[in-house]
């Protein structure tokens, strides 16, 4: 026979255990304009994703500079909408997109990322600054090829 008085308590316990398990999972932090001038603490080898809105059709694109202890793994422009047909229609009327930077924390200590929204003439319009404190990890980071150019 099932004791229905204990069922809600059991569900709460299961939900708590389930949520604690997810909190321990390691997902790459995704940062946006809302995280401008913030400081994050990550372990060595952690992948950090930065997503910033841009207007490439208007000549406004994000450029990135990072400390030596951070390696740029990906720099890609994405449409604002995941559906390609919706994106094409949207881009005709409203040419917005998202610049996505994936950065690997390879060096320990204080690191900085500065993203600058620039016009085609190279004039800075806006800045996004992120401070990264990289702590030693028990796991050795994998070798990373940096895509950054000077």
Automatic annotation (TrEMBL):
Gene3D superfamilies: 2.60.40.2020. This is Secreted protein. Keywords: Protease inhibitor, Thiol protease inhibitor. One of its GO terms (molecular function) is cysteine-type endopeptidase inhibitor activity. It comes from Methanocella conradii (strain DSM 24694 / JCM 17849 / CGMCC 1.5162 / HZ254). SUPFAM superfamilies: ICP-like. The keyword Acetylation does not apply. Signal peptide: none annotated.
């Amino acid at each position: 026979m099932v004791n229905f008085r204990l069922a809600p308590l059991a569900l709460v316990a299961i939900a708590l255990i389930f949520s604690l398990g997810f909190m321990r999972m390691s997902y790459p932090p995704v940062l946006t304009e809302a995280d401008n001038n913030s400081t994050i603490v990550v372990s060595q080898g952690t992948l950090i994703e930065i997503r910033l809105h841009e207007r490439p059709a208007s000549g406004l694109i994000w450029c990135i500079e990072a400390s030596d202890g951070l390696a740029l793994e990906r720099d890609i422009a994405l449409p604002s909408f995941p559906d390609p047909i919706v994106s094409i229609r949207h881009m005709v009327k409203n040419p917005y997109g998202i610049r996505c930077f994936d950065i690997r924390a390879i060096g320990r200590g204080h690191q900085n990322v500065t993203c600058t929204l620039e016009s085609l003439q190279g004039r800075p319009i806006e800045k996004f600054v992120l401070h990264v404190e990289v702590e030693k990890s028990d796991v050795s980071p994998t070798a990373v090829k940096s895509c950054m150019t000077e």
